[in-house]
Amino acid sequence: AAGVIQSPRHLIKEKRETATLKCYPIPRHDTVYWYQQGPGQDPQFLISFYEKMQSDKGSIPDRFSAQQFSDYHSELNMSSLELGDSALYFCASSLFVGGHRGTEAFFGQGTRLTVV
Amino acid sequence: AQSVTQLGSHVSVSEGALVLLRCNYSSSVPPYLFWYVQYPNQGLQLLLKYTTGATLVKGINGFEAEFKKSETSFHLTKPSAHMSDAAEYFCAVTLTGGGNKLTFGTGTQLKVEL
């Protein structure tokens, strides 16, 4: 079965550079979530989109932005990178069913961002 | 607001022994509860979930969890640990009817010894 695809899997950037992470949800899933997991930390919710509109926002820095495109893939754009942005970034997707969002989010393998 | 607390950041068991990973939740409305497993440098894989109905939930790899409202708990168990169970386990909660945003616990690293 198709899963959530994230690219790239690994990314190394220098401080103050920009990075773009991509997420391709499971086909027909309409909701995408982004999470950040720092070293030894639990995943922290950043932002989510439903039908190309932002649906919820968590602890996402102002330097970060994201969007969901017409084909439902999503991109997380990170600017002015800092050393503390080094983390594993997960994307997850789910399906809005029967008037409420599906009860299960499926996670991608993550993008490991290293800022040097 | 919802939250989960995982007791014990590290748990060590012998192969073949009972696995018990503890999770307590806090939620003002009926929660959906999840257990995820994460292997090194891997994504999060869903083990099991509780939404409504039966409070004893069976998941993959022989794991199960019981939702106990009176104790606000959702502990994860497995009767007999296997070496391949060594991983990090996260309990997570989201609100019914909410946006499915998951709030994770701080994780429990399970070590399985021979």
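qc> The mean pLDDT of chain B is 91.
qc> done
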